[in-house]
Design a protein that fits this description.
The longest helix is centred in the first third of the chain and has 21 residues. This protein has nine helices and eight strands. With about 230 residues, it is an alpha+beta fold. Strands 7-6-5-4-8 form a five-stranded antiparallel beta sheet. The protein has a three-stranded antiparallel beta sheet with strand order 1-3-2. Among the domains are: about 60 residues, Arc Repressor Mutant, subunit A; about 100 residues, SH3 type barrels (Roll), CATH 2.30.30. The protein is globular and about 55 Å long. A hairpin with a 2-residue loop joins strand 4 and strand 5.
Length: about 230
């Protein structure tokens, strides 16, 4: 990954975390944010001025918060939909549609039908901790079915065939854990930068469809020199 790509990746992570915290109602302290992200206060101010100018923000005594209002509710819902991937299910995801759904009474105008069996419960708190680690690009240690996996880089949680799977990278190789197999998640202070090749592979529809059978072809992944799936001949 080039220096430019790394810089853009860090910027995207920084902006994503800032927006999620603002939407959650946090008051952000510029000096603490600068120390957390390893940037100057001047850089943060440029982020807010040039890249977050569309948000209704209040600045006071070195802090920043999102002003409350009716439109903030729609912003929060749209942010959740975009971050969870639900946005792709709706043809017209905008403020007007979200406002109509939230203001409606009685029976819901939409129904998302899932033919799979109900999701089996995971250990309490595991899903939320993984969401946080993925959002913050933070390495974790997993305890899963008697195995311990240290310094794993979690990329994404994927729902496939009625089951959730944690996908990520460990020692530059693709790794997958069924959520129900994970018993404990411990955060590391160390952050990671996504490997573009692995990230693209994990988003490939063929790979996602094969998630329930990952344990079958895991040995094939491990046998390759770069930890990626062998490419099909064209």
């Amino acid at each position: 990954m080039s220096q430019t790509e790394r810089r853009h990746e860090r910027l995207a992570v920084r902006l994503s975390l800032i927006i999620s915290r603002l939407v959650a109602g946090e008051t952000l302290h510029m000096s603490l944010l600068a120390a957390e992200f390893g940037v100057s206060i001047r850089t943060l101010r440029r982020d807010f001025r040039e890249r977050l100018m569309y948000l209704d923000l209040e600045y006071r005594d070195g802090t920043c918060r999102l002003l409350s209002g009716s439109h903030q509710r729609e912003l929060a819902v749209m942010t959740f939909a975009r971050q969870s991937g639900v946005e792709a299910l709706f043809p017209d995801m905008d403020n007007h549609m979200v406002s109509s759904l939230l203001s409606g009474s009685g029976e819901s105008p939409c129904l998302i039908w899932a033919e799979s069996e109900p999701l089996s419960p995971s250990q309490p708190g595991i899903f939320t901790r993984l969401i946080r680690a993925i959002s913050e690009h933070r390495r974790v240690t997993l305890l899963a079915e008697g195995r311990r996996c240290s310094r794993l880089a979690p990329y994404r949680l994927v729902l496939c065939g009625g089951h959730w799977y944690l996908t990520g990278e460990h020692h530059q190789r693709v790794t997958v854990f069924p959520l129900n197999d994970i018993h404990a998640v411990t955060f590391h202070p160390e952050l990671f930068v996504s490997n573009i090749q692995i990230r693209n592979l994990l988003a490939d529809p063929d790979f996602i469809r094969a998630l329930p059978h990952f344990h079958v072809f895991h040995s094939l992944l491990a046998a390759t020199c770069d930890g990626l799936l062998p490419q099909k001949e064209k």
